[in-house]
Specification:
178 residues; mainly alpha; 71% helix
Amino acid sequence: DITTAAGAKAFGAGLPFSDLGGGYIGSWYADILDLMATISLFAISLGVASGAARIMYAQARDATGKRTGLAGLNKNGAPAAALVVVLVIFGVNLILQQLVGESVLDATFQALQVGTVLILVAYVLATAGAIRFLFLSGEAKVPRWQIAIPVLGGAFVCYTIYRSVFVGQTGYLANMPY
């Protein structure tokens, strides 16, 4: 019973909503919540993959000046090659998680964390590019004191990456089962 002291302690430990819903309403409600969580995670995964592919495409386009490979678009204007690369990275991560015995839910959350960290890395690279373009390529295009803005922003994102990957209960590498 989740209304007891032990149940309250379990709730504080972070029971999934499906366990709570099943405990209060019934197993059918827990199944509905699990289905809703699965659909939500799938939608989030697609959004992260789409965003990561767009960033990868833009960086490849700007780095090479070409319009092929990762820097190419399909006939509908989507960065299909970059999306395939991102989905392969997600898929390999999910397979590795399954091989080491992670639950599907944990493996999905970790794949989303990897995607998020990859997007943050892209932001750091974009910030470094902005610093180079604005302040280090010939005559400064804006007042020099404004370099503090991208430097502080880049430092904040680097700290976020560090905390996400290495530190505490949410650290990706800190919680790897292998």
